[in-house]
Structures are given as structure tokens and as C-alpha cells.
Amino acid sequence: MTEKYALKIVRDNYYLDNDSFLFYLHERDLFRADRFNTLCRAVETLAGSRCDMLTEQITHCYQNILKEFIYHFNPNDSSQITDFPKKYTHYLEKFDCALARYYTCGNKHNEKER
Predict the structure, then answer these.
(1) Mean of per-residue pLDDT scores for the chain
(2) Separation between Cα atoms, residue 27 and residue 16, nearest integer Å
(3) Pick from 29, 44, 12, 21: which is nearest to 77 by CA?
(4) In the predicted model, what is the mean pLDDT of residues 28-42?
(5) Is 90 exceeded by the pLDDT of residue 107?
(6) In angstroms, rounded to a whole number, what is the distance separating the alpha carbons of residues 61 and 88?
(7) By three-state DSSP, how is residue 50 classified?
(8) 10 Å Cβ neighbour count for 6?
(9) What pLDDT sits at residue 109?
(10) Which of 92, 10, 95 is nearest to 51 (CA)?
(11) E strand or H helix at 96, and its extent?
């Protein structure tokens, strides 16, 4: 994935645009694993970028993913994600690893292989 395309993926998710993962999750209550994996690859591609705006956008995306997962489990909330993965913690760990690579400039030392 090119850096330019990775930036577009993060931006699209930040703004819930262009059929991004967060667009489907938030607007359609649909978990799209393919879009999730694309977002993770984008974050990893941008490892070490150290742009404050980009870091804020990635963090915002991660926070929204966590919130949507929490809302899914809240019986008092109307949000029910279609195709919610049974092993959702796998996806959270995958994003955690992508974030770790982003913050450590892509250093994979001592990280679990996915």
C-alpha cells in the first residue's frame, strides 16, 4: 500500500466517507472485515509518520471502533452490528499491533506474528 493511499484510507475512516470501515460500522451497523484489515494496513504503512493531525485521526478512528463495540454490547443501545465477529478481540489486538507499529516507526521486534 502506498503512503498516499494509506492517508486516504485513514482520512475516509476519520470522516466516515467512501465506504470506509467506520462508515459501514457507524452508519450501517455492519462489520466489514475487509475494510477493517485495509484500515490496519494503512496505519502500519504510515508507521513513523509523526504528524500530529494524522496521529489524532488514527486515534479518533480507534476510539470510535471501541465505542461502537461497546454500544453493540449495551442492551440499552439501539446499535446492533450485523456480522459482528465472534472473535472480536482478535480484531482489537490486530489494531493494537498496527498502532504499536505506527508509534514505534514499524519496529516489529518482540511483536506477535498475526
Answers:
(1) 89
(2) 8
(3) 29
(4) 96
(5) no
(6) 16
(7) coil
(8) 21
(9) 41
(10) 10
(11) helix 88-103
Residue 37, C-alpha cell as written in the block: 484489515
pTM for the full predicted model = 0.87
What percentage of the chain reaches a pLDDT higher than 70? 92
Which amino acid is it at 27?
E
Which residues fall within 8 angstroms of residue 43, CB to CB, at 6 or more apart?
Answer: 6, 10, 58, 95, 98, 99, 101, 102
Close Cβ partners of 73 (under 8 Å, ≥ 6 residues apart): none
Number of neighbours of residue 98 by Cβ within 10 angstroms: 23
User: Residue 13 in 3-state DSSP?
Assistant: helix
In whole angstroms, give the CA distance from residue 114 to residue 111. Answer: 9
Which residue, among 80, 86, 84, has the nearest Cα to 31 in the 3D structure?
Answer: 84
Residue 113 CB partners (closer than 8 Å, separation 6+): none
pLDDT of residue 106: 64
Tell me which of 50 and 103 has the higher pLDDT. Answer: 103
